[in-house]
Design brief:
The structure holds 2 protein chains of 2 kinds. Chain A is α/β, with parallel strands linked by helices. Chain A has 5 helices and 5 strands, in the order E-H-E-H-E-H-H-E-E-H. In chain A, strand 1, helix 1 and strand 2 form a beta-alpha-beta unit. Chain B is 65% helix and 9% strand. In chain B, the strands form 2 sheets. Chain B has a 5-stranded mixed β-sheet. Chain B has a two-stranded antiparallel ribbon with strand order 1-3. The two termini of chain B are 35 Å apart. The chains are: A alpha/beta, B alpha+beta.
């Protein structure tokens, strides 16, 4: 079975191109435009192996999304990579945050991290 | 981002209304008391001495004039403060009156000297008490007034002449003449000095105010850009991430090269557009030339910049159709800055509200005869009654530290006034609506500097 990655990102282009790349790498990719969409999506799919999330998003930010995810035992165990242009002002309230990567991140860095945890 | 605003304190802004009132009342009182003291001295001189009638009438008339001018000046200041709060007007008249009263005082001094010179016997017996009365009264008044410098000058007025007199005129009979002569001389010098000082001060103050206003305006403009820069950095890093990912996709053997190349181009355009918008309002320089500004492209550019800087909140910024070919005479960068300030405020107002999903911001431009009206409206809660009086004041802000300078609206207002226009809050609508009204043409004098193109 293919490994799953969820990309939570409000920028359509970033979500699409990263998704394309990960699909070429053989992942099953899910996309959500904000935290609220991501939480809804997570209820209907089998848990992904890694979540990549942006921080500054409308409706529900990455911080809020991670806080909600941490409260759900099924989601709290999924490794998370934060990919954001925002400054790291607070520490995420999720137990399994692998890294806080600033945009634009070298693709190699991102891929190595994803491969190591899926 | 931190900006140093070099704002020297100006009397107009450094003192509160109450303080200003107190200072002016004190100055007025001082002037009145000095006038009374001088006039009474003359009256005493005229009626209580054995030389009754021998003092020329001109001295009395001059004294009376000075007294009346002092009183009039004080009354006028009070009147202006009460009924004409426009300070520029008040300031100009105040300077004028000070100059007139000082000129009169100067003439009086000249007359005194002439009279004393022609009646030495008068001086010996009578002008001594006059000098003492005027001197003591003046010192008393100056001491209880606010001006230490003047007090010192009056001390010099008494001490220096006495010493001089003892040195130059050793005969006791001439002592009083000497005191009066040198006292008058010092007084004359002092009056001349303060007259010129007033003139120079008025000129310098004008230049200083102008320079500081430019500086504050420049800082506020940069601060407004600084506030936007955070949002814009976010927006630039996203396309950069897209380009990086596309580059990685290009490396794949199965890559659809033409399609990826087109996407890289489109993404580059996206960044270029963001930077172009930012750059057009970040021009460094003190003065911006008057030019004929096309309204539609300006508004579109500003709206786009605002859209980019707040894109993470996704508040729609609509621009209602603008009359085609509408132009306005003015300083493009400055008008753009006012619109950016208003948009920044609108964004701050709606992004915090609970109904941010239904939030909107709208720019409406209308043409009214020879004026153009720019409305920046938002769905925010509006401005509460308690804030209304203060919103246009410098450094007034309801935003958190670091999020606003409190200069936006006050600078915007002064830019509007610079353009002979105005910035007002429309209180007849339920939402928030700031209205910038600018005339289509600037007055003729400035028109010659207009550069077309």
């Amino acid at each position: 079975m293919a490994k799953g990655v969820l990309i939570v990102e409000d920028d359509h282009d970033v979500r699409e191109t990263l998704g394309l790349l990960l699909e070429l790498e053989g992942y099953e990719v899910y996309g959500a435009a904000n935290g609220k969409e991501a939480l809804a999506l997570l209820k209907s799919i089998s848990p992904p192996d890694v979540i990549i999330t942006d921080i500054m998003m409308p409706i529900m930010t990455g911080w809020e999304f991670l806080e909600s995810a941490a409260e759900d035992p099924a989601l709290a165990s999924i490794p998370v990579i934060i990919l954001s242009a925002a400054e790291k002002k607070e520490s995420p309230k999720h137990p399994k945050v692998l890294a806080f990567l600033p945009k634009p991140v070298p693709i190699e860095t991102l891929m190595t991290l994803i491969k190591a945890h899926s | 981002m931190h900006f140093h605003l070099k704002v020297k304190t100006l009397p107009q802004t450094a003192l509160s209304e109450n303080q200003l009132m107190r200072v002016e009342t004190a100055l007025g009182l001082r002037a009145a008391v000095a006038g009374i003291a001088q006039f009474s001295a003359f009256a005493a001189f005229r009626f209580l001495t054995p030389f009754q009638g021998s003092v020329p009438l001109s001295i009395d008339v001059a004294g009376l004039c000075i007294f009346l001018v002092f009183i009039a000046r004080w009354a006028l200041v009070l009147l202006q403060r009460t009924y004409y709060p426009d300070r520029r007007w008040r300031y100009r008249w105040k300077v004028l009156f000070r100059i007139i009263s000082l000129t009169l005082a100067l003439s009086w001094s000249c007359i005194s000297i002439t009279e004393v010179m022609s009646h030495p016997e008068l001086a010996i017996t009578l002008i001594t008490p006059l000098v003492i009365i005027v001197g003591v009264a003046s010192i008393g008044v100056q001491a209880f007034g606010l001006d230490l410098l003047l007090t010192r000058l009056f001390v010099v007025l008494i001490i220096v002449p006495t010493v001089l007199a003892l040195l130059i005129f050793p005969q006791p009979g001439y002592l009083a003449v000497a005191i009066v002569l040198s006292a008058s001389l010092v007084y004359l010098l002092f009056l001349a000095k303060s007259s010129f000082q007033l003139l120079f001060e008025a000129l310098e103050t004008r230049e200083l105010i102008e320079a500081q206003r430019n500086q504050v305006q420049e800082s506020a403009r940069l601060a407004a850009l600084g506030v936007m820069a955070g949002g814009i950095a976010h927006e630039i890093n996203n396309p950069l991430q897209v380009i990086r990912t596309l580059a990685e996709l290009l490396k794949r053997p199965s890559a659809d090269i033409p399609r990826i190349a087109t996407r890289i181009e489109a993404t580059t355009d996206r960044v270029a557009k963001i930077i172009a918008g930012l750059r057009s309002f970040a021009r460094v320089g003190q003065s911006y030339p008057l030019s004929v500004v096309e309204v539609e492209p300006l508004v579109m550019e500003v709206a786009e910049l605002a859209r980019i800087s707040q894109s993470q909140y996704r508040v729609p910024i609509e621009v209602e159709p603008i009359p085609l070919g509408l132009t306005i005479e003015g300083k493009r960068t400055e008008i753009g800055q006012v619109l950016i300030n208003l948009l920044n405020n609108a964004i701050d107002a709606v992004k915090g509200s609970k109904e941010s999903d239904n939030a909107w911001i709208r720019i409406v431009v209308k043409e009214h005869f020879d004026e153009v009206e720019f409305r920046v409206e938002d769905s925010g809660p509006g401005v509460s009654e308690s804030l209304l009086e203060n919103i246009m004041l410098p450094f007034f802000t309801t935003k958190e530290v670091g999020n606003g300078t409190g200069l936006g609206l006050s600078i915007s207002k002064s830019i509007a006034e610079d353009h002979h226009g105005r910035l007002v809050l429309d209180r007849n609508v339920e939402y928030t609506s700031f209205v910038l009204i600018l005339p289509k043409h600037q007055p003729k004098g400035q028109h010659e500097q207009v550069k077309y193109g």
